[in-house]
Amino acid sequence: MRKIIFTLFIGFILAAGVYADELSPTGQEMQQHDQNPKDGQSEQPEQRVVVPYYKDVRHNGYWWYAQEPDKRQEKENGQNPKHFLPSMKEYTAEQLWNMHPKDFQPLLDAFFDKAVQYPTEENVADYYKIQDIARSRANAFANVATLVWQKHPELNTLALDYPSSTPGKTARLKIQNREVESKIASSSDEFAMIYFYKPGCDFCKAQNGILKFFVDKYQWQVKRIDIESAPELASRFDVSTVPFLLLIYRHSEKSLPVAVGVTTLDEIEQRLYRGIRLLGGEITPEEFNMYEYQRGGGFDPSVYSKH
Question: What is the pLDDT at residue 158?
Fold first, then answer.
């Protein structure tokens, strides 16, 4: 115990000595003090040296446990940095046209900020001048892209799987509907739905008619469960709102919600199609919205990862 007290005492003496050395004036400081004017003579105002916060050994937070200066207070005191105010006189049209996009975008934003802060005719005109250059550069890229797609149609994969013309849209919808209906009809032996409802629920009454049409069309099994009579099942599948449709798979304990609330037949079909393929292991979550006819095309996210 005595050794510990002695060690702490020696440490305190050494620390006090370092602090005293820091506070004591150096030889140069004493010489300057001797050269100060005597009483009655005019003195120059004392020059205070500002030491950066973390380099001031005697007053930093590690020594005196002081708080770091508030940056917001510094800004309020007028120490915030000056904002960049560009001028069109500093640039030629060629410089702006050939400027790197990473440099052009901040410059465009700066012209906009200047026009908003100081909305003079000149500033607003400058902003629209540089904006017109940006529009022209984007138009040039779009024109070249159109040429590239026409010369290399294999690159424009989205246009092949998602045509924009009216005949193309009609054909696409026919392919999608045929694929969805075929998948649902062929899965009636392996999949089924659980329908959670509550007596007296007007939304459930509206959903009942849609479900009847679905069963008549596909001959699916739909198990109806009253959540008031079977609250343990509702709790098991986290059913808190009705009507609620749940997709189940014969060969797995996994399930997938199909719809919550009143849902149209088309929405039920689309969600069942994706759910059947996911639970059946035909697709991954990354391919959830992809149709089978789109495999290997622009809408297939695995087209490059599988190579």
Answer: 83
Is 263 inside any structural domain? yes
Quote the CA–CA distance of 205 and 144 in Å, as a whole number: 56
Q: What's the pLDDT score for residue 273?
A: 98
Within 10 A of 187 (CB to CB), how many other CB atoms are there? 22
Q: Which of 277, 271, 274, 196 is nearest to 235 (CA)?
A: 196
Do 60 and 66 contact (CB within 8 A), yes or no?
yes
Per the structure, how many domains does the chain have?
2
> Are the C-beta atoms of 236 and 144 separated by less than 8 Å?
no
Does any domain span residue 305?
Answer: no
Domain of 221, CATH number, reads 3.40.30.10
Whether 217 and 284 map to the same domain: the answer is: yes
Q: Is residue 131 located within the same domain as residue 233?
A: no
> What is the block-wise mean pLDDT of the chain (307 residues), using blocks of 10 residues?
48 47 46 47 50 49 51 54 86 96 96 96 97 97 94 86 91 96 97 96 96 96 95 93 96 95 97 98 96 92 77
In sequence order, what E strands does 250-292 have?
A: 255-260
For 103, the domain range is: 88-144
Which among 186, 152, 178, 191 has a CA at the least distance from the CA of 293? 178
pLDDT (tens digit, 9 = 90+) per residue, 83-140? 889 999 999 999 999 999 999 999 999 999 999 999 999 999 999 999 999 999 999 9
DSSP state of 122: H
Enumerate residues 6+ apart whose C-beta is below 8 A from 258: 193, 245, 246, 247, 268, 271, 272, 275
Contact 199, 226 (CB under 8 A): yes
Contacts of 206 (CB under 8 A, 6+ apart): 262
